[in-house]
Amino acid sequence: MPFHALALLSTLAFVSAASGEMQIHTICADGSGQRRLTGPSGQAATPVWSPDGRWIAYTAFDGGRAQIAVMAADGGRRRRLTAPPGEDSFPSWSPDGRRIAFVSSRTGEARVYVMNSDGSGQRPLTSSTGAHAAPVWSPDGRSIAFVARQGRGEPDLYVVNADGTGERRLAAGLVHRPGVLHPVWSPDARRIATVVRVGRAETAVLVVSVTGAEERRFTGYAPVWSPDGRRIAFVVARVGDAQIYVSDDGGERPVRLTLAGVNLLPAWSPDGRRLAFVSSREGDLAVYVMNADGTGARRLAGVAGDLSLLPVVSWRPLTSPDGARLPATRSPR
To answer: Cα separation of 70 and 47, whole Å?
Structure first.
């Protein structure tokens, strides 16, 4: 199948509460083919595609307790990977698809764990004190970034090697809400973008190297790199207003992409040509897709109102028929 045909098949997973409970759906980027994958009983959230696009890991709620589950891309072959005691949430696939990092409270305080993709070999990965959250694998599979909070203070950014060694703090005083503002790796695995507070109400995107050296900061939050690493999309919020911008990877020469309403959680398509985002521009909360220059915005479907459980929306990786991941195209300047 040629590359351009694969690009037309772009699919998103998202969380909708249209049935009264949070359930995972998929939809094509042109708005066609919406399908509910989970239900009818129990709620589901945080859909994360496997690197080959064949599986979705997610958080399943049974009796109000969160556990990690997986299912095939069509919603079949569902199975739980974790079980009580404790709650398990926020799954993150390793780049090779063989392991999943997640957060577990099974021993009391939340810690980052890893397991094989079939649920075997579950073990704690982190050792620092405090409540841990938001594990994210580096694109090269060597490290995992996470957030650790001590008491009631603002949390700090940590990185640990994939084997649990070399845990170290990279930045302090993050603005973090579980699932909403989380560390984001650059595609070359050399930098991490996160969010810090500037004054009482302002936030800034902070970019640090894996050595912990601060590289830059600029006004905004919810940063995400384009697949080719050349640009960053982010949100600038004011009272009653939040707009999506895109800039070069240094945060310079920002271009505003959205014009009105509250627009949140930008997510690049795998080919770097489009952005999905969540917006209340038509009154209710819905997922939209627009071109990377801000044109052609299209409403796809309503989404769940609970934005503390991310991702609400995620793109299926662009893969060949044999499951091999395809490289991103270079985005135009």
So the answer is: 9
Report helix, strand or coil for 174: strand
Q: Do 317 and 52 contact (CB within 8 A), yes or no?
A: yes
Which phi and psi (to 5°) does residue 271 adopt? -90, 0
Length of the chain: 333
String of DSSP letters for 276-307: EEEE-TTSS-EEEEEETTS-S-EEEEE--S-T
pTM, to two decimals: 0.90
Q: Output the six-digit token pair for 17.
A: 């509460």
Domains (range + CATH), the chain: 3-315 (2.120.10.30)
* pLDDT tens per residue across span 151-201: 667 788 999 999 999 999 998 878 755 444 678 999 999 999 998 877 766
Which two three-digit tokens encode residue 222?
A: 């919810």
Largest CA distance in the chain: 53
φ/ψ of 5, rounded to 5, equals -70, -40
